[in-house]
């Protein structure tokens, strides 16, 4: 058979086959990853869009609000089932509804209307939820105050939002009396300050008489006000009726600038956060344990679940690692919320086999950068089958979910979805924290796999997962927006978090960017700590930053203070002053005294240079400056020596 001549068509065909083969050969790793993560990615898309997004859209169409959810529960089955467990108390949905009616009717009666704000400072208890729910019925926004704040810290928070009234727990009476007595409080606080210890929707319950005066600071007995008010359904005119997208509360967050900011949180936002419960197939058969403070978004989630899913929430005034497993057995807890170092605290408790085995706890749900070694040890020791780690923030739109329970990452994005996904990872300057831009295009530079960068999320108002409602301060809102990131006119939310990504699309939280860092599950605002130190030390130059410590989660606070030659630093006075003015989580765990000859490094814009100080940390082996370490036992500082440094580096020091 004669050899047929090779035609031009044959040549082109062979070249095409060769090109296709070469292309797939070059992409063989990508294709392998695509195939290996296919089931994972389909499950993620189903949960995010098939469950969470559709649930949110349905509630929006019905114009559902949180108070309508609880009204629906009471209407359908009487509302007698348990809504909250609190110590020996059992609060039903009906009790919460009736107290919320009293709250709404009272404040409506004194003239408060939609859009007004009322401050709420109270430790965990069922009344806390009933109060903001009741205020929400008439469109009044609750301003949730961190109950750890004192003096200057508290002053800053109460000054951010103008409140028509304040409701405080009796346990915070002295804290508010302190800022009232210094003169500024009289200007910052409203004239009507209500005080509440407890309130029960029970005919047999008689409220204790509240001491309502400390010096010139006077409060109104809120329990007596509520008892005199009707618990009948609140009637609101159509123009005052709250809607799905109206704010129901402001939650404070430090943010990357270090200035306290009030985050606008709508009914829709809380419903979106609550809908993440579908990840663990949460239902009315579950009981959720809530150890987080209720001024924190993590502490509100279990409360909102109780209103949305009819699942009881266990509220505790303060988390106790010692009592945790006792509570799990006592209330038959099935799901537990966690933030920050919660799991490590439990893991570090002495073993109690009789409590750690045979429990009903099936899932841990939360976030906050759980360390892989703690995650693994916790799951192995306590046999908790499911861990769902979520990366999210109260105001942000960069939500990631680790559905697989893979130890380490805070979530993932399918590799094929990354180029067009609304969440992106961009390079930042390690010193200034500013987003780096391409010299030719002027647009932000995306990170490659393994490169650290800042997580940003595209702002799309019509999509709940991509919304950014902003803060009460328009300047602070603008600072969190990155404009013209990849195309002219686009807008992205800046998370302020340093994150890395691997080739499989998993994201790993590294640290905070800028002047804020996390410690004890709280954001520490460096500018606030610096201002306090400056005031106490007679305006000495100082700078505050977070440092890494082996075996701990987050970054403890460290202060570098200029050791002026004209006078010695009174360490005792500084300690007492900081204890008076700062919450415990913001207390510097380390103080470095820098000589005036050396001075504090500054940038070209006259800002203190923290980059090298962070790198130095508290390593007394490499720095000559004296370093002091804080003892939470003696509540004082002592000079760090080699033995103490070794103890810290081995993870044995108690912070």
Strand order of the largest sheet: 2-1-13-12-14-15-16-17
Mean pLDDT: 87
Overall 3D shape = globular
Computed Rg: 27 Å
Q: What's the main sheet like? A: 8 strands, mixed
- Helicity, in percent? 25-40%
- Structural class call reads alpha/beta
Q: Counting H and I runs of at least 4 residues, what is the number of helices?
A: 21
Distance between the termini: 88 Å
Uncertain stretches:
none
**Beta-strand percentage range:** 15-25%
**Beta-strand segment tally:** 30
What is the fold's blueprint, element by element?
Blueprint: H1 8-26, H2 28-36, H3 38-61, H4 66-77, E1 82-86, E2 89-92, H5 93-109, E3 117-121, H6 126-137, E4 141-144, H7 151-160, E5 165-169, H8 173-181, H9 184-188, E6 193-196, E7 213-214, E8 217-218, E9 220-221, H10 222-227, E10 247-253, E11 261-266, H11 267-275, E12 288-290, H12 297-309, E13 313-315, H13 324-331, E14 335-339, H14 342-347, H15 353-356, E15 363-367, H16 372-382, E16 386-391, E17 400-402, E18 411-412, E19 423-426, E20 453-458, H17 474-479, E21 481-483, E22 491-501, E23 506-512, E24 516-519, E25 522-525, H18 526-536, E26 542-546, E27 557-563, H19 571-581, E28 590-595, H20 611-616, E29 627-631, E30 636-639, H21 642-649
Helix pairs in contact: 3-11, 5-6, 7-8, 11-12, 18-19
């Amino acid at each position: 058979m004669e050899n047929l001549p090779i035609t031009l068509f044959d040549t082109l065909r062979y070249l095409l086959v060769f090109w296709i083969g070469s292309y797939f050969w070059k992409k063989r790793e990508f294709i392998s990853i695509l195939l290996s993560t296919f089931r994972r990615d389909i499950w993620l898309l189903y949960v995010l869009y098939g469950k969470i997004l559709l649930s949110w859209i349905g509630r929006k169409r019905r114009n559902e609000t949180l108070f309508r959810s609880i009204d629906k529960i009471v209407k359908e089955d009487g509302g007698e089932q348990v809504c909250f467990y609190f110590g020996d108390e059992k609060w039903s949905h009906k009790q919460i509804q009736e107290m919320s009616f009293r709250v709404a009717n009272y404040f409506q009666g004194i003239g408060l209307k939609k859009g007004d704000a009322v401050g709420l400072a109270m430790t965990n208890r069922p009344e806390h939820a009933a109060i903001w729910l009741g205020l929400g019925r008439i469109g009044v926004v609750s301003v949730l105050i961190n109950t750890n704040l004192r003096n200057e810290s508290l002053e800053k928070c109460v000054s951010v939002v103008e409140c028509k009234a304040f409701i405080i727990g009796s346990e915070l009476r002295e804290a508010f009396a302190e800022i009232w007595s210094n003169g500024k409080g009289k200007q910052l606080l409203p004239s009507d300050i209500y005080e509440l210890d407890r309130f029960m929707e029970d005919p047999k319950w008689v409220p204790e008489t509240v001491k309502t005066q400390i010096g010139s600071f006077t409060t109104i007995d809120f329990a007596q006000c509520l008892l005199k008010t009707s618990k009948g359904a609140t009637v609101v005119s159509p123009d005052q009726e709250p809607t799905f997208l109206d704010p129901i509360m402001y939650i404070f967050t430090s943010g990357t600038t270090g200035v306290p900011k009030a985050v606008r949180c709508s009914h829709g936002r809380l419903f979106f956060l609550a809908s993440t419960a579908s990840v663990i197939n949460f239902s009315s058969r579950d009981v959720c344990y809530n150890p987080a403070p209720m001024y924190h978004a993590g502490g509100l989630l279990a409360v909102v679940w109780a209103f949305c899913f009819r699942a009881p929430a266990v509220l505790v005034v303060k988390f106790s690692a010692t009592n945790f497993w006792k509570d799990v057995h006592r209330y038959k807890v099935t799901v537990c919320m966690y933030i920050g170092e919660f799991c490590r605290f439990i893991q570090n408790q002495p073993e109690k086999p009789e409590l750690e085995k045979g429990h009903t706890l099936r899932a841990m749900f939360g976030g906050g950068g759980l360390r892989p070694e703690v995650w693994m040890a916790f799951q192995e020791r306590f046999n908790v089958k499911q861990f769902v780690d979520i990366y999210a923030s109260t105001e942000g739109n960069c939500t990631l979910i680790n559905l697989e329970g893979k130890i380490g990452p805070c979530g993932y994005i399918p590799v094929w979805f990354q180029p067009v996904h609304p969440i992106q990872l961009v390079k930042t300057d390690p010193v200034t924290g500013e987003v780096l831009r391409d010299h030719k295009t002027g647009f932000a530079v995306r990170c490659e796999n393994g490169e650290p960068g800042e997580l940003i999320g595209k702002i799309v108002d019509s999509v709940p997962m991509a919304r950014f409602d902003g803060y009460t301060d328009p300047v602070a809102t603008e600072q969190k927006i990155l404009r013209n990131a990849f195309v002219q006119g686009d807008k992205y939310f800046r998370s302020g978090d340093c994150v890395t990504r691997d080739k499989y699309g998993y994201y790993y939280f590294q640290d905070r960017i800028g002047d804020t860092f996390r410690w004890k599950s709280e954001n520490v605002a460096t500018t606030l700590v610096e201002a306090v130190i400056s005031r106490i030390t007679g305006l000495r130059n100082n700078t505050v930053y977070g440092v890494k410590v082996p075996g701990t989660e987050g970054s403890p606070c460290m202060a570098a203070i200029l050791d002026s030659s004209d006078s010695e630093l009174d360490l005792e006075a500084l300690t007492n002053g900081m204890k008076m003015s700062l919450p415990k989580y913001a207390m510097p765990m380390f103080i470095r005294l820098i000589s005036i000859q050396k001075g504090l490094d500054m940038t070209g814009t006259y800002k203190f240079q923290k980059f090298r100080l962070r790198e130095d940390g508290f390593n007394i082996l490499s720095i000559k400056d004296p370093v002091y370490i804080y003892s939470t036992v003696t509540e004082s500082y002592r000079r760090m020596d080699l033995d103490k440094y070794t103890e810290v580096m081995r993870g044995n020091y108690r912070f």
